[in-house]
Amino acid sequence: MTDQTAVTDLSFSSLHLPEPLARGIADAGFERCTPIQAGTLPRALAGLDVAGQAQTGTGKTAAFLVAMFANLMRTPPHPDRPLTSPRGFILAPTRELAVQIHKDAELLGQYCGLTLGLAFGGVDYEKQRRQLEAGVDILIGTPGRIIDYFKQRVFELRHVQVMVLDEADRMFDLGFIADIRYLLRRMPEPAQRLSMLFSATLSQRVLELAYEHMNEPELIRIEPEKVTADKVRQVIYFPSMEEKVGLLVGLLKKLNATRTMVFVNMKRTAERLEATLRANNIDAEAMSGDVPQNKRLRMLRDFHEGRLPVLIATDVAARGLHIPDVSHVFNYDLPQDPEDYVHRIGRTARAGAAGDAISFGCEDYVQSLPDIEAFIGRKLPVEAVDKEVVAEVVAAPHDHYSRGGGRSHAGYGGRGGSRPGGPRSGPRGPGGPGGSRGGRGGPRPGDRGERPRGLIAPAPPAGTVAAEAPRREPPPRRAEGPRDPAGAPAAGAAPAPAPAPAPAPTPAAAPAEGAPRKRRRRRRGGRGGAKTAAAAGGPEAAATVSGPMAAGLPRAGRLALLGVGLLIAAALTWWALRL
Fold first, then answer.
1. Which H or E run includes 140?
2. Residue 270 contacts residue 264 (beta carbons within 8 Å)
3. pLDDT tens-digit profile of 294-323?
4. Closest of 406, 298, 108, 101 to residue 119, by C-alpha
């Protein structure tokens, strides 16, 4: 939502909106409509479906919110509508965009008396569920959490009067098309509801979705040939990989950028860049899809309020967020999708202000530049890398990252994280160097570091020397005379005769007294099974196992063989009788 100065002559007062809604619009400071609002609001207020395309930051959010509030206030709900059935439904691709829409809806609809519900993943599962169970008039959310609650029958969609899809092409990119169709098919027929679809870009597949699930929507395009805003000053540098970080640090200090967004392509790059900027006295934080939702919202709030000067982000933050007074946008990594470039630089030069979009064409991502320039219809001005601008970079602390490339967190037992078991010392445990598996303390039962029970004698008491592990040795020699504890022969004992050669080891030889007893596994089947069965079963069993074919078979096998023989004999007898 924006109060962009590129406005038309159509004023909000001339739209004859309900008085509570007009008061909210006046409190937001809006007087005249932007081009996308002027093109869509008269049709939407008349109950006609619209699909709007306009540049990022031109007021699409305000357009569908005003139309939704006006329609719900003028049209009474269905008399059979249950409390858990929302009347308005807004679907957004990302959590940040859903939160932004909810915030704008609170501002515009503060006097309308309509309750708002917000459902998105990552936080407050039970809290959001209780809110929806209590009943809301307008539900705003992301596809995943919405479908989760819907399948649990927390709410229903049979009485939706107004439906909005925001950033529809982004939903296709994120793979939400099946979820969108699932939800649209459970709403009233397109002719029985008002449907609106908005996006910065409308591809052919999005239009197919619109004509399939909307009631003859009218397509509103606002200057589609102007892909980027006119007041965005775009420039590109071509630094080497060694100069890239130093150039960013130097430009941030030279330009005195107080509210800057730096876009990268990978989460790992964002975390490393955050550590490097902090080591060079630049307050920055990295936001990516893996950052917990509470922390992401806190980052956006701090950046919005000016407490955080530099926000590093992947493309998760490039869509739909309205943050005023963003002075500079850095494409530290050129995006691989040209449309993402448009959405990134659309974070600046909003509300009619000017802004700078600075891109780095490094050797890793410069191959995307021709597609970007073809998409925006112009060549990016090139600036030479000034060696005086490239700053001397202070390296980030080595322990800021794990060896796997991620941020180190105590308690997770990762390869590079700090281990709760203390510093690395002693032999390696099963969970990697310096700690047990998972970083939870001692070894688990069954791990390699813990010996199985019953195989080895217990450890000797403290103060004694631990005996070596028992080895397989031949049977003990003939016992000598008694000996005293010191090891010398006892007084009066006859001298021991010369040791005779040790007899060959036999299976029946008993181990020496005091030696750990080896656990013997009982054999099932095999050649020894027949002997054991014969010994246990007496003469009858011995007679059963006699014979060359039955030798070495288990008892079940012998019985099966006997049964087969009997069947063959019976068959032969029957055949002989028939002859």
1. strand 138-141
2. yes
3. 888 888 888 888 889 999 988 865 565 667
4. 101
